[in-house]
Amino acid sequence: MALDWDECLAYTTVRSVTVRHRWLGLTYYTLILAIVGYIFGYQIIHQRHYNVMIPVGGVIQANVEGPVNLTPLAKLGYCNTPYVDGKVYSCRYPELATGVLSKVGDGVEGSLFIGTRLSSVKQHRNLSCTDEYSCAPWEPEVGTAAYAAAKVTTFVGDVESATIRLQHKVSRDTEAAFGFSPDSHFLTPFSSKEEREAARPRMCLARDHTQCVRPHALLPEGDVFSVRQLTQLVLPDGSLDTKRGGNETSYRYDGLTLKLRVGYSSPHRYDYYLSHNDLAYKDISVAPAGSAIVGAGVGVGAGVGVGGEPPQRTRTLYDVHGIQLLLSHDGELGHFQLMQLLVALITGVGLLSVAKVATDMMLMYLLPRRAQYRLFVQDLTPDFSPADDEERAVLEQVLRAKRGERSFMQGKRPSEGLRAVMLEPSTTGAYDTPSAPELSPPYRDYPHGMQQYPGSSIVPHCAHAEHGPGASSIMAAHDAETSQGAVDSPSPHVD
Question: Which of 74, 66, 113, 71 is nearest to 226 (CA)?
């Protein structure tokens, strides 16, 4: 038997129904346009879902330098004049390189501390204290009235004019992920001044990118901002003398915390983003008298000092409040990938089915003529579990008609009886469909159209006059060849 390639490679598809209803079609195409606009307008163009988001890893560091041109003390409103708390404080020279008024934090995400207020207390060793766990080794003791009376508080003069140099670099792994060669790099503060001037880096508020400042200077190895630029950007009136909430003290007195993040909008463009909170920050350190070694003499007994030397008899305790600058280098950048674009498109195309489902729901359940629409979009089969002879006859005739139709479409030779019925021309152009009283329920409403022939043979109305006279009528015939699979009527059981 020859292999029929048309049969082996036959393609199976679905059948569609065209519903001629303007409002239904308008609903469907409106939903289609909305989904297409969402896919291309929002996801592809606005959200850039054709990019793979890659974390921009790197490190950032900062250091502070004292002001070059100091403002005279007489012009500083917080020096030697009544302050916001009613007290008078003197000012000291902003020596920020001593490691007391400024410090650099360690770690991948480092920090920088800039002192704005220094309180110092001179303490002497309690020689009568031999057990530091049972008595105070230094007097006056912290937290006592004598300690508060001995405290001398000064402000760091003109700290706003101090400058902060920011340096950062992107990791080689990130640059390799974006296709950079070993000789090419992201734009950083180490890039040429011309490249940075063209990119115009800024420092902006993290919550509002429209409020920004330009660097105070672009040095060969760093972007420079002044402390004043930072405070003017984040504080309500730009001054460290602003009261903190309902307190009687100020940011200059208590300190504050700033978080600075460097972020990239492209490999050749970066900006700094600044935010703040009212978390007060202080740093406590000890400087022994007559020594530059910070912390010497701490926890030393009365008889022996560091390295066998005589113990320090006095020390100065520093309590520094100021600006804590937390640094971070994070963010993500999109890198185009064709596969990511295809995923975005395929995901969006899946949404198109929503328009069809929504429209079908309207058609089947919401529109006023939904019962009539269902006659065209829903098909009905005979009962495959017949309960009486009439239902068995209907099922048998429908199955024979379906087999005959399939045999005819496959070009198989029908039996003589079937050929006679199929080739018999229609004289009226249509078959007679019995009226509702001629059939018992549920066949009165059978949508395929049933025909009543002599001998009570009920067959589906599967030929139409549009084929013209002499057209082949695909009908079922009562012959042995096409009766395979017919439902046999069981003999009635007699009790």
Answer: 66
Helix (H) or strand (E) holding 349: helix 338-350
Closest CA to 115 of 248, 224, 256, 226: 256
Q: Does the pLDDT of residue 414 top 70, yes or no? A: no
Cα angle vertex 407, ends 405, 413, to 5°? 125
**Residue 113 contacts residue 161 (beta carbons within 8 Å):** no
Handedness of CA 418, 423, 424, 426 (dihedral sign): positive
How does pLDDT run across 28-85, given as a tens digit for each residue?
Answer: 999 999 999 998 888 888 878 888 888 888 889 999 998 888 888 888 989 998 888 8
Q: Do 431 and 464 form a contact (C-beta atoms < 8 A)?
A: no
Half-sphere exposure of 242 (CA within 13 A, CB side): 13
Question: pTM of the full predicted structure?
Answer: 0.61
Long-range contacts at 480-486 (CB < 8 A, ≥ 24 apart): 480/415, 481/414, 481/415, 481/417, 481/418, 482/400, 482/403, 482/404, 482/407, 482/414, 482/415, 482/417, 482/418, 483/400, 484/403, 485/399, 485/403, 486/396, 486/399, 486/400
| Residue whose token pair is 């009962």 | 383
d(CA 271, CA 273): 7
Cβ atoms of 466 and 474 within 8 Å: the answer is no
Closest among 208, 227, 181 to 271, alpha carbons compared: 208
Contacts of 226 (CB under 8 A, 6+ apart): 160, 161, 162, 163, 164, 216
**DSSP assignments along 261-306, one per residue:** EEEEEETTEEEEEEEEE----EEEEEEETT---TTTTTT--SS--G
Do the Cβ atoms of 481 and 415 come closer than 8 Å?
yes
Distance between CA 383 and CA 381 in Å, rounded?
6
Q: How many residues belong to the chain? A: 495
CA triple 340-170-63, angle to 5 deg: 145
What separation, in Å, do the N-terminal and C-terminal C-alpha atoms of the chain show?
52
What one-character-per-residue DSSP string does 47-111 give? S-TTEEEEE--EEEEEEEE--SSPPPGGG-TTSSSB-TTS-B-EEE---TTSSSSEEEE-SSB-E
Asked if the model's pLDDT at residue 327 lies above 80, the reply is yes
